[in-house]
Design brief:
Gyrase A, domain 2; alpha+beta; 3Fe-4S; four-stranded antiparallel β-sheet; cytoplasm; single chain; 12 strands; transferase; RNA Polymerase Alpha Subunit, Chain A, domain 2
Length: about 260
């Protein structure tokens, strides 16, 4: 199995994976979406809420705010505390403000400076003149398989496209070039070529447009283009590493006969 990084940014990772099976790649995707513990608001206590947004809706919005997730916290099920509010398994985020204002995530004050919103600009609600909002939110570790609030990233993959062109019979009419939605095809040196094979969506619009049947689009089921787009709780590289650790543990448990599934 070989991995080649194609793109790496603070919140985005794109890599080329070869020598793998569709089952393994899909397991990696599912591990990213469901099996990595991240921090998210799980409980909210309201002391005052004069805004037009109901407590339940505002609590839901707070739950969807991505939080930076450092190492060291315990899952609620692993902690010895009774109420799930100790410093080993939870973080409190407080908010106290008065309108008029647009209340954003940056106003939240965390008990741990490492567990803060990934962005200060997430809108929560709007307060009018004299309206007040005061609350305390409790963030805990959780899994995406239990609720999307704990999903750390978007993860997707596709097979590596295979572009085929038959010189015999091709009239270089250009219909395939015009039909390609991503505008990837061109005619150069009396040939139809594709500029960026990885960006091909395999929609086969070029195949349908070719009157001579000289274009063919297929896929290589042993090569994949994988993308990870982090919501901000942790870097995409760290997300990928944790997903790999999850798969390794699952395989070890399976080989050892441990019921963990």
């Amino acid at each position: 199995m070989e991995i080649e990084i194609r793109e790496l940014k603070d919140d985005r990772l794109k890599f080329f994976l070869s020598g793998a099976t569709p089952e393994f790649v899909n397991s990696l995707r599912r591990a990213i979406l469901q099996e990595i513990p991240v921090m998210a608001v799980d409980e909210v206590d309201f002391m005052a809420n004069d805004s037009v947004v109901d407590d339940e809706i505002l609590a839901h919005r707070l739950g969807q705010v991505p939080l930076h997730t450092p190492e060291g916290y315990l899952l609620p099920s692993e902690c010895d505390c009774r109420d799930g509010r100790c410093s080993n398994c939870s973080v409190s985020l407080t908010l106290k403000t008065e309108g008029p204002s647009l209340v954003k995530s940056g106003i939240l004050e965390s008990s741990d400076t490492e567990v803060v919103p990934a962005s200060d600009s997430f809108p929560l609600t709007r307060l009018g003149e004299g309206q007040k909002l005061e609350l305390m939110a409790i963030a805990r570790l959780g899994f995406g398989k239990d609720h999307p609030n704990w999903q750390p990233a978007l993860a997707s993959y596709k097979y590596m496209p295979i572009f085929g062109w038959k010189k015999d019979g091709c009239t270089l009419c250009g219909d395939c070039v015009e039909a390609c939605p991503p505008d990837l095809l061109e005619i150069a040196d009396d040939e139809v070529v594709i500029n960026d094979l990885e960006e091909c969506t395999m929609c086969k619009a070029c195949v349908d447009a070719c009157p001579e049947g000289a274009i063919d689009i297929d896929q290589d089921s042993s090569k994949f283009i994988f993308k990870v787009e982090s919501f901000g709780c942790m870097s995409p590289v760290r997300i990928l590493e944790k997903a790999a650790e999850v798969l390794k543990e699952k395989c070890e448990d399976f080989i050892g006969g441990t019921e963990r599934f």
